[in-house]
Amino acid sequence: MNPFAPSLIALVALGGATGSVLRYAAGLWCAHWFGTALPWGTLAVNVIGSAVIGLLGGLILGGLQLSPEMRVFLITGILGGFTTFSAFSLDVGTLFLRSPALGAGYLALTLVGGLGAFALTFALGRTLMH
Questions:
Q1: 41 carries a ligand binding annotation
Q2: Residue 57 labeled ligand binder
Q3: Res. 86: pLDDT tops 90
Q4: Is the pTM of this model over 0.85?
């Protein structure tokens, strides 16, 4: 299938819009519940996004059959719109300007949380498929 087929582009766009709205909602929810001293929404979506992509990757490598259309919609579209690594970079830079320790702490928390969530759910996905 042509990777630039209009149907695939539409799936990426629809998934991206969905993921972006979910990211916006998560940011609002986190700001409401946890305040704005740290960018909790960005942290949450990066950890959740890492967990979901880990689970999907584990399931797929374990044998789950997903059509190319579903992969593009879920991974490139929804998760691409939902995760905010570019916003994360801006947040880290801004926090470093305010306090290098705060910036470094947020960077470490995000990396450990995201990579940890990925590793756990990747293994879970593979286990579920066996």
A1: no
A2: no
A3: no
A4: no
